[in-house]
């Protein structure tokens, strides 16, 4: 079975790899690292806490899970699937051959819709011409502050049917964000005990930009220690827009 997800913009998660490393400010309070520590303490062998000497901060070790690769072929009901909620598929320690196999599985299961999100769009762009890009694969990049807007330019090089931006945790304004070629934007504040607050004007700016560019806008949460208790409304409205495939 797929793992049911509490993430508002998806229905299930699929983790053919686990593990990642902190690379930018958006990773400072990584929910996946916190969860991995908890799962490791419970004896789950999929999670090993370590540090990558090539990066500036700790992470949890990259592991390839052959046994998970074919899971989507055994799911009967169509579903929206977040790929690697506990990893980054384009991490340097994930073999290119395994990435290709993940894409082959997604192409072979068109009944499902797959959402792939990365903070490593340089490798994504370099590999894009080697991968199949069926209509059921959505590709996104994380953009937590203005310093990471360059990731969107790399994403534009990828021939995905749907391209999206995850501005979560939103750590600053994204003024004049170029949404050309984008289909969807998710915004949200940071959660957890060490959360950094989000300014409502940052969110309003993104919602306005999406409206002007005719890009679907999804507001996930305000964040905080108990984000669900704060609700998901922006100026009295809930934004749950989903993308539509671009006309060819």
Structure description:
The chain has 248 residues and is an alpha/beta fold. It has one domain. The chain has six helices and 13 strands. The chain has helices spanning 31-41, 66-69, 96-108, 121-127, 150-155, 200-213; strands at residues 3-4, 12-14, 17-21, 49-51, 58-64, 80-83, 113-118, 137-142, 162-167, 184-188, 216-221, 233-234, 237-238. It has an eight-stranded mixed sheet. The longest helix has 14 residues, at 200-213. The radius of gyration is 17 Å and the shape is globular.
Contiguous uncertain segments of 5+ residues: 51-58
Secondary structure category: alpha/beta
The H/E string reads EEEHEEHEHEHEHEEHEEE
Rg from Cα: 17 Å
> What general form does the structure show?
globular
Report the β-strand fraction as a percent range: 15-25%
What's the structural domain tally? 1
Biggest sheet descriptor? 8 strands, mixed
Order of strands side by side in the largest beta sheet?
1-2-6-7-8-9-10-11
Number of helices in the DSSP assignment: 6
Report the end-to-end length measured between terminal Cα atoms: 34 Å
Number of strands: 13
Helix content: 10-25%
Structural topology:
Elements: E1 3-4, E2 12-14, E3 17-21, H1 31-41, E4 49-51, E5 58-64, H2 66-69, E6 80-83, H3 96-108, E7 113-118, H4 121-127, E8 137-142, H5 150-155, E9 162-167, E10 184-188, H6 200-213, E11 216-221, E12 233-234, E13 237-238
Parallel strand pairs: 2-6, 6-7, 7-8, 8-9, 9-10, 10-11
Antiparallel strand pairs: 1-2, 3-5, 4-5, 12-13
């Amino acid at each position: 079975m797929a793992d049911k997800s509490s993430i508002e913009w998806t229905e299930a998660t699929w983790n053919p790899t686990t593990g990642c490393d902190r690379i930018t400010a958006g990773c400072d309070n990584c929910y996946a690292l916190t969860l991995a520590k908890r799962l490791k303490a419970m004896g789950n062998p999929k999670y090993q806490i370590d540090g990558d000497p090539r990066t500036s901060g700790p992470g949890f070790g990259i592991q390839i899970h052959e046994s998970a690769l074919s899971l989507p072929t055994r799911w009967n009901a169509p579903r929206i699937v977040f790929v690697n909620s506990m990893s980054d598929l384009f991490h340097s320690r994930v073999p290119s051959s395994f990435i290709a196999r993940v894409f082959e599985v997604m192409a072979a299961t068109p009944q499902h819709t797959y959402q792939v999100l990365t903070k490593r769009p340089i490798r994504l762009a370099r590999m894009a011409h080697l991968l199949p890009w069926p209509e059921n694969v959505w590709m996104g990049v994380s953009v937590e502050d203005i310093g990471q807007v360059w990731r969107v330019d790399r994403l534009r090089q990828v021939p995905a049917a749907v391209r999206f931006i995850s501005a979560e945790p939103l750590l600053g304004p994204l003024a004049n964000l170029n949404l050309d070629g984008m289909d969807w934007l998710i915004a949200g504040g940071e959660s957890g005990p060490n959360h950094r607050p989000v300014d409502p004007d940052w969110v309003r700016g993104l919602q306005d930009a999406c409206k002007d560019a005719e890009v679907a806008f999804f507001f996930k949460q305000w964040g905080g220690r108990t984000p669900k208790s704060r609700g998901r409304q922006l100026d009295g409205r809930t934004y749950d827009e989903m993308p539509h495939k671009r006309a060819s």
